[in-house]
Amino acid sequence: MKRILALTIAMLMLFASVAAAEDMTLIGDTKKNTIKLNASYPANPVMDTVSPTTGLNASGEAYTPILMVLDNAEDAYPHWGVSQADILFQVPNAGSGATKLMALFADNYPELAGGARSARGSMVPLAMAWDAAFAFAGGPELDNNNVDPSKLMSKFGMWKAGLGFDLLGSYSQREDFVKNPHNLSAQIRAIHEELVADGVEFTKHPFYFTSEPRTEGADASYIEILHYGDDKENGSNSASASSFTYDADKAAYIRTNSSGEYVDRDTGDVVPFANVIVLRVKFQWNTNYVYLKDHLVGEGVAEIFQNGKYVRGAWVRSAQNDRIVFVGPDGEELAMQRGKTFIIITNDVTDVSYR
Predict the structure, then answer these.
(1) Which stretches within the chain are classed as H helix?
(2) Which of 39, 94, 168, 272 could serve as 138's disulfide partner, Cβ 3.0–4.6 Å?
(3) How many C-beta neighbours within 10 Å does residue 174 have?
């Protein structure tokens, strides 16, 4: 009887899973942007009292954007210090859909954030796009300048400008609450103070914000994202797969992966995201090391999720020193919801579904 009951429960769970999958809408045709773009997108006005990255009241701290690499292995969770980040990125790291996260601190600077890990060439253009200092724990030393992050930083003038911070040398410490190698903390506050003391100047690249919630678009209270790298035959990368569930009370999406809801270890609270954006770009490779086509200059498809709604959009970036502009269905710059943003940098092989 117990065996029959167990089989019955298993079958019911299987049917429920299949029904849920059938209820999802898989986004297709993601290789080429079809939205007519403007010839240019003027910079948005800088307001000293408003954060350029969240649209919320600014903290009053000196503006020194710091982009740090976060470990995306299951044993690295939960991260710490991340509730003070304005933008989280998920970025290709290696073959078979492996990814890392990156946290942009541009308004609040925690004493410590982690766990920090090594850089890849795919990450450097994001630091350039936000005119940010780049904090990372080493990286591969390769002959190819496209995939060696340190050489790519030299090419873009980041070392010369004082924007590189290799955490294997300084501004870091090991913690005892996470096992090695997932236990490296970046001393974000110390990096911030060093940048201020050195008089490093940064250019603000504000998003265009609105206080009106999105009402247009398809209902998307749940999003599922599966990463495969360049070949679905290898299967989805379990550590990189994630979902986002819309919380109407928070007017934000809550991220979940195999380690549970995305929380800050320091506070125990979930980190809410008012905007979730999937930016599609072609991956390029040198052996098993990935970088982004034209180092994220050009245009492409963007999937935009706000207020429990989905719309197809686009992204455009004209040069390495330019910001990334996200564009709505009408071809105008996207109105961002005020709050934190999660941006997934991936290719057209990644499956994004919603319901």
Answers:
(1) 2-22, 124-129, 149-155, 188-197
(2) 168
(3) 12
Q: Write the DSSP string, 6-48.
A: HHHHHHHHHHHHHHHHHTSEEP---SS--SPPPS--PPPPP-T
- The predicted model gives 206-225 an average pLDDT of 98
Other CB atoms within 10 A of residue 148 CB: 23
Q: Using CA atoms, how far apart are residues 125 and 130, in angstroms rounded to an integer?
A: 9
- For 97, half-sphere exposure in the C-beta direction (CA atoms, 13 angstrom radius) is 20
The DSSP element (H or E) to which 218 belongs, if any, is strand 218-219
Q: How far apart are CA 231 and CA 100, in angstroms?
A: 19
Please, are residues 152 and 134 in contact by the beta-carbon 8 Å criterion?
Answer: no
Least Cα distance to 64 among 115, 91, 104 occurs for 104
Residue 70's nearest CA partner among 94, 90, 100, 110 is: 100
Give the C-alpha distances (Å, rounded to integers) separating 212 from 85, 246, 324.
Answer: 23, 17, 22
| C-alpha pair distances (Å), 127 with each of 15, 82, 322 | 45, 17, 11
pLDDT, tens digit, 9 for 90 and up, residues 6-61: 444 444 433 344 445 569 999 999 999 999 999 999 999 999 999 999 999 999 99
Q: Give the whole-angstrom CA distance, residue 231 versus residue 234.
A: 6
CA 335 – CA 301 distance, rounded (Å): 17
The rounded distance, in Å, linking the Cα atoms of 124 and 224 is 27
